[in-house]
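User: Quick sanity check before I run a bigger batch. Here is a single chain. Can you write out its predicted 3D structure?
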Amino acid sequence: MRSFPAPALAMVEKMQAAAAAEPSRAIALQGAPGANSHRAAQEFAPEALPLPCFSFEDAIEAVKNGRAGSAIIPIENSQHGRVADIHFLLPESGLAIVAEHFMPIHHALMGLRGADGAIGPFEAAYSHPQALGQSRHYLQERGIVPLSYADTAGAAAYVAELGDPSLCAIAPAIAADLYGLEIVDRRVEDAADNMTRFVLLAPEPLDPASLAGEVAITTFIFEVKNIPAALFKAMGGFATNGVNMTKLESYQKGASFSASMFYADIIGAPGDAGVDRALDELAFHCKELRILGSYRQARGRDLA
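Assistant: Done. Predicted structure follows.
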C-alpha cells in the first residue's frame, strides 16, 4: 500500500510535476490532496507548491534528496496526543525544525449513495488513526467500525475507488468535493477545540541570533545518565534559570526498555543567558543531548 488511490493519482502527479519544476518552492507533506497536511501547507505558505507524499518518511526524504525545500509534518493533536512515530522520525531525519503552525481540525463523515439512492447506514469508516481517535465516540455511538488508512483525504479517495456504499471516510470536507463523495455529517470530531500542531522541517536550522527580540521555542531530545535522580537534577537548571518548559515527553529507545529518551520544548533559544545555562546543566546530566531547532513561537503557551 505504497501508492495513492486512483481518484487521487491525477492530482498528485500534477502537483509532483509542478514541484519538480521548482523544488525550492515545494513543501513536502504526507497525504493525498485535501488532507489536513495539505491544508496546513496552504495556510502556512500560500505561495508554496504542495508536494504530496504517501508517508511521513517519504515527505522527509523529499527534503533530504532536494525534491522539496521543506516539509510540513503534524507533530501533536490537542485531543489525541502526539502523532505516532514522530519522535523517532525527527531525530533520525537530520532535518531541523524552523517553524510551527497550529490549525483547527474539523472532520466530516462522507460516503457514496447506494443503488436505491440512499446514503448510509455505514458499517466501517476509513481514516488516518489520528482522525479515528479524534472521532472515537462519534463512531462508537453509531456502531461504525474504524479502519486505519495512511491519511484522511487518501481514505476518501480509497472509499470512492472501492465504490462500496457500506463504507465511509472521515476526512476534511474538501475531500468530498475532490473525490465525488457526499457529506453525511460535519464536525464529527469529539472535541470542538480540536487543534493540531505542525512543524516545518528544513535542511538547515535557523540561526538563533535571527530570533532576537521575538518569543522563540527550542525543541530538543535528550537521554539522562542512568543514575538515581538524574532527571530531577537535569530539570533543575530550567527552574533555577527561569526557563519555561512547555512540553516534556518520554519515549523508549530500542527494545530493552532500559533507556528512555525525552522530547522537550522550552521558551527561548540558545544565546539567551538563562537558556544557555540551563542547557549546559542539562548536558552535564545527559548521555545525549540534541537540539532539533529554534524557531518563532506561533501561538502563545498559557501559564495559567
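The longest strand covers residues 286-296.

User: Great, the batch can go ahead then.
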